[in-house]
Design brief:
alpha/beta, globular, two-stranded parallel sheet, TIM Barrel, GH, 6-phospho-beta-glucosidase
Length: 489
């Protein structure tokens, strides 16, 4: 029996494109006035097993050691793929694919090298002027992430990260510079990339180091509260500066299924979903702390400092749309000793025996994508924007400079089909920025061999190679897909 093919129902103005992060692509870590960020202090460990379930931790010691070392082999994100100097060439390739939108992040440590400078770094702003103008000159809508896993080290050293309430005003000042500078040029903004990662990897997102403090978990959620307040304040500011601005929240949605239909497993999964995913969206998109979060805080002896003024700002300035990343799904059980671990996004997850996986052990679940989009839209009823979706693969540059990647095409085809079905279900989806349209340094492992792109960058894990860009087979597939506005048949 033939499977029904969904009709091509993507809106005519649907925003097809791709997404990069400055801290993984830009390089030039010590040029143009930029100071160190946490990613600049993340080592590449060549002996590390690809499916190692443990994730590299950032400590005060690793940061202090990195400050004394100018090595770009040991710290690959310092070199990235040299987007700082190749942005014209790279954006031209995006334009050739027909991108309607390009999501990129701005480095706080470039714009305010000390974090609390009186005036912004003009050299940095000129660079981002050029990137944004290059997009506009190629009829590509720029979508800017204001903070994308690139916590400035100076804000850790001098303020203790987001645990300090003072970071709210520093962030608002940073955003005001961007909103005014790019008024009329940038319409779409994301306040914090995957804000729910703050509860898992607090150094990259919050700048809060785990040094054995008894109240460490409390510090993390206090820092998160400060980010919630900051996001609400800059959402208001963005609308005041330009009424056309659209400001989105963003989470990495950890789609989770019960291991069995045993009621205890279903209940456990519901509770798990609340604090992994919904808590962050409830605050940013509903404007208040949900009941279950208050219970979680009570059960974990977490006492937050929250003023009525904070709560009012959050209530009155909710996000305009929800951005999400979707990579894989997982399972949960009230008896986890029965389950097997496998690597996942940021941390290990329990293996679903019904799913395949990539070379890094990440599970592949296209149908879960449709489920996730429906789940989120049903709860919040605001436009959704898929800001990251893809999978890392091992690519081979052939002797004739071709790269054949049918596995990437298959992965994206199956996910875009489910995205199409979600739209048919009634989900209001406004855009799709595939993660990593050009190969760059991996966020979690700092390796180059974990490739996502349609464009191959000739650089290995140690920075060797010509750095030339080559089009993969998927480059032409995505170009055709965009030209057909998502009709994959």
């Amino acid at each position: 029996m033939m499977k029904d093919k969904p009709e091509n129902i993507f809106p005519k103005d649907f925003l097809w494109g791709g997404a990069l992060a400055a801290c993984q692509a830009e390089g030039a870590y010590n040029q143009g006035g930029k100071t160190l960020t946490v990613p600049d202090c993340m080592e590449f460990l060549p002996e590390r097993d690809r499916k190692d379930k443990k994730h590299i931790e950032i400590t005060r010691e690793t940061i202090e050691n990195a400050k004394k070392d100018n090595d770009t082999v040991k710290y690959p994100k310092r070199r990235g793929i040299n987007f700082y100097n190749t942005y014209k060439e790279d954006i031209a390739l995006f334009a050739e694919m027909g991108f309607k939108v390009f999501r990129y992040s701005i480095s706080w440590a470039r714009v305010f090298p000390d974090g609390d400078n009186d005036v912004p770094n003009e050299e940095a702003l000129k660079f981002y002027d050029n990137v944004i103008d290059e997009c506009l000159n190629n009829n590509i809508e720029p979508l800017i992430t204001i903070s994308h896993f690139d916590m400035p080290v100076t804000l850790i050293d001098n303020y203790g990260g987001w645990y300090n309430y003072k970071l709210i005003n520093l962030y608002v000042k940073y955003c005001e510079v961007l909103f005014k500078r790019y008024k009329g040029k940038v319409k779409y903004w994301i306040t914090f990339n995957e804000i729910n990662m703050s509860a898992r990897k607090s150094v990259k997102t919050l700048g809060i180091l785990n040094e054995g403090q008894e109240n460490y978990k409390e510090m993390v959620y206090q820092g998160l509260h400060h980010q919630f307040v900051a996001a609400a304040k800059v959402t208001k500011l963005a609308h005041q500066i330009d009424s056309n601005n659209q400001v989105g929240s963003m989470v990495a949605f950890f789609t989770t299924y019960p291991y069995t239909c045993v009621p205890e497993d279903v209940l456990f999964t519901q509770k798990d979903n609340q604090m992994k995913n919904l808590f962050f969206l409830d605050v940013l998109n509903k404007g208040s702390y949900p009941y279950y979060a208050k219970t979680f805080f009570k059960n974990n002896n977490i006492e937050l400092s929250i003023s009525e003024e904070d709560l009012n700002v959050i209530k009155e300035n909710t996000a305009d749309f929800i951005g999400l990343s979707y990579y894989n799904s997982m399972i949960a059980s009230s008896k986890p000793n029965l389950l097997e671990l496998t690597p996942g996004n940021v941390e290990s997850v329990y293996k679903n025996p019904h799913l395949e996986h990539n070379e890094w052990g990440w599970q592949i679940d296209p149908v879960g994508f449709r489920y996730t989009l429906n789940h989120i839209y049903d709860r919040y009823n605001v436009p959704l924007f898929v800001l990251e979706n893809s999978s890392g693969f091992l690519d081979v540059l052939e002797d004739d400079n071709s790269i054949h990647d049918p596995y990437r095409i298959d992965f994206l085809n199956r996910h875009i089909e489910q995205m199409q079905l979600a739209i048919k279900d009634g989900v209001n989806l406004i855009g799709y920025t595939m993660w990593g349209p050009i190969d760059m340094i991996s966020s979690g492992t700092s390796e180059m061999s974990k490739r996502y792109g349609f464009i191959y960058v000739d650089q290995d894990n140690f920075g060797n190679g010509s750095k030339k860009r080559y089009k993969k087979d998927s480059f032409y597939w995505y170009k055709d897909l965009i030209a057909k506005n998502g009709n994959i048949y």
